[in-house]
Description:
The protein has 15 helices and 14 strands. It has 393 residues and is α/β, with parallel strands linked by helices. The chain has a seven-stranded parallel sheet. Strands 5-6-7 form a three-stranded antiparallel sheet, with no helix packed on it. It has a two-stranded antiparallel ribbon with strand order 1-2. Helix 9 (202-227) runs parallel beside helix 10, helix 12 runs parallel beside helix 14 (339-353) and helix 14 (339-353) packs parallel to helix 15 (373-386). It starts with 5 loop residues before the first helix and ends in a 7-residue tail after the last helix. The relative contact order is 0.15.
Amino acid sequence: MNKTKPRERVLAGLRHEETDRVPLDLGGLNTSMMVETYERLKAFIGKSGLGTKVRSKTWQVVDIDEPILERFQIDTRYLFPNIAPVQKQAQTGGLRGASPQQEPVEDGFIDEWGVKRKLIMHYFEIAEHPLKEAKRLDDLESYPWPNPHEFLILNGLRDRARHLREYTDYALIGTVGGGNIFEQSWYLRGLSEILMDLMINKEFVHALFSKLLEIRKKTIKLYLTEVGEYLDVFQVGDDLATQNGLMISPALYREMIKPYQEELFRFIKELTQAKLYYHSCGAIIPLIGDLIEIGVDALNPIQVSAEGMNTADLKSRYGKEICFWGAIDSQGILPFGTTGEVEKEVRKRIRDLGPGGGYILAGVHNLQPDIPPENIVCMYDSGAKFGKYPIKC
């Protein structure tokens, strides 16, 4: 089969068609790698001279440099906006990955939503939920909600999008961040609190979700007005599951969360022709049909270590309706396996998910510091080698 250009390779995969090989992804919102992982990889492949740009202070993930994307034959390129700081504290310590807009602080930072985050191990975890003590609708009305016109920085993004569209053949993926409705609600409120609210304080939850939906729509409209015409894929995210199952029952999801997601996804599809990519970690199987129903075209990360996330079964049940994105086990195989075991893992996921298209290969979530660089190299080199159509691995 003749070699296919990267953009068409990805789009064909999303259409459930075979081309020359399975598409490869690296560098996304949930498919990048952390600072320490990246530094070791660059040293391992002789690219230590490249700088390291931290894209997300919260998750300590990086922008992958173009020479490395080219080395691994990556088919995707991402268009990330910048987020302006909202509140600064006295400078008494250090913040890893601080940008010129975010001054170092002693114990972390306060994000655009008013959520205080503190460095714990590798990440800036939530230290304070600003709506934890909220009891009434009035508490939501008086909260200082963020204004997308103030925190979303789009300078130069349209020019970059146009350049990538006109002068490269890569698939362009856009996003304004994850945590769209449910996840952002518990960032603000606390997970235990929002789970109780969903059962006993539904009026409060509807008011909170409505406010989050309003802000998300404004943010997405600003972004898509700028670059939507150039995108092939647009990513959203909202974790709904854990390692062992859903966070809430399917019935409660359909009653309380799905209507807001459906409105958001419909809004997105009115603004762009891009395919919709949805991220949720965990054992998400009971809700895949719902996500397909409300417009999701691709599902990430396919956490194969979670309960019931068998890739052969997923392909059999949903492979004609949704594209699977990710699936290379970064919880067990990538950090602790040999290169031979990594190759075996890659071949299995390609064999299960690749036939007929509908699979884009990447790690399950951002690659953590416990993953050896040789396993990252093996994953992508094996993907390019064994992902050739027709699948024979």
